[in-house]
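Methods — Computational structure assignment.
A single polypeptide chain was analysed. Its primary sequence is given first, followed by the predicted tertiary structure written as C-alpha cells.
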Amino acid sequence: LPTSRWSFLNYLVAHGRFFDFMAARRASASRAEFADYMSWVAHGLASTEFGDPVETIRHDGRDFVLQAASGQRWLSRAVSVGVGLQPNIPDFAQPGPDFLHAAHWLDQRAPLAGRRVAVIGGGQSGAEIVLDLLGRDPAPAQIIWISRRSGYWTLQEGAFIDQFFTPEYVTAWRQQSAPARAAVLAEQKYASDGITPATADAIYDALYQRRRQGREDVLLRPGREVLAIRRSRNAQRIEARVTGNELPEHCEADLVVLATGYRQALPDCLQPLAGRLQKQPDGGLALDAHYRVLWDGPPETPLYAMNHGRNSHGIADPQISLAAWRSAVILNDLSGQKLFQIQPSGQVAPMVDWPGQTAPGAPERDIIATAMAVAHP
C-alpha cells in the first residue's frame, strides 16, 4: 500500500483507477487529473478551510493577527503565505468585455462560433487556448496567435535539464552572485516557460489538417510586439510591430485573450506590513535560504512566502516539483528541528558540480540577505 494516505498512488487506489493508470503507460498525470488530486487532498484535510479569505495580516509586537472576511480572527506565531501570482495585464490592454486573461479562460461562456479570436502570448497557456479553439465545433471565424517570442518554442527537456529542479541545484544557485543568477535565469527560460512538445505537436497536426482541407482561418504571428489595442467599430484593432521594423502591423479581433503570464505582487492581506517587508527587483518578497521573508519583525515570529523566490532560489521556485521539499525546509526552520531530511544523507557528492556548490554538510551563505541589507539599509 502507498506509504502516505495522501500520495498520488493512494489517490488512484481510492478512485479505483490504479491499474487503468498504470496500463496507460503515461509519463505523467494530466493537468486535469493532477488538479483533481490536489483538490482531493485539500478537502480531505481537517486543517483546511475554504471560502473565508484572510483580508489582513498584522503584527502586534508579539504575534501575527489574521483577520478573515467572516470576522474570524487568529493569533499565530508564524505565517506562511502561498497565494500565488497575479495575472499580468499589459499596459496596452484596456479592461472590457472583449478582453479576457488566460487565467479566466475556462470560466468564459461567451459563444465563439463565427467570431475572430486573438490569443496574445506564446507560452504554454496561450498554446493550450489555441489548441482548445482549434477543436471547437462550431469553429471561430478566425484564430490569430501573436507572440513576442521569435518562434513557438517548446520546453527544454531531458535528464540534465531536470537537474535544475533538485535541492542540490537550488542550494548551489544561492551561492552565485546576483549578475550570475540573472544571466543563468535568462538562459534557462525555456526549461520552465515553453510549450510542451505534446501540445505543440497537437497544434501542428491540427493546423496541417486545416491546410489539407484548404482552410486558412488560422494566422500565426510570432516575433511581434503588441503596441496597442484600440476599439474600432465593433472590434478590437491590434497594433503590433516586428522587432527592428518601425512600421506597425494591424489586425482585428472580436475577442482578445491575454496569455501574458503572471506577475509578482504583494498579497493584499500583507498591506498592513508593506512598509516593513524587503522586496526583490521583480516585486517579489526578499527571502532567505529558508523562505523567510526579510523584514524588521522579531525573528521568533517568522513570515514565510512561497512563489516569491525566482530570483533568490532559481527557476524551480514556482514549480510544483519541489513543493514538498520547500515545505520541509520551512517546517524544519519553524520547529528548529531536523524533522525532514532535506539534503542527501552522508557525504554523497552531487551528480553535477554546479557553480557555487558547497561541500556536503557545509552551511549555506545567505547572500540574498546580505544583498538586501545593502540595498535597504
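Note: The chain has twelve helices and 15 strands.
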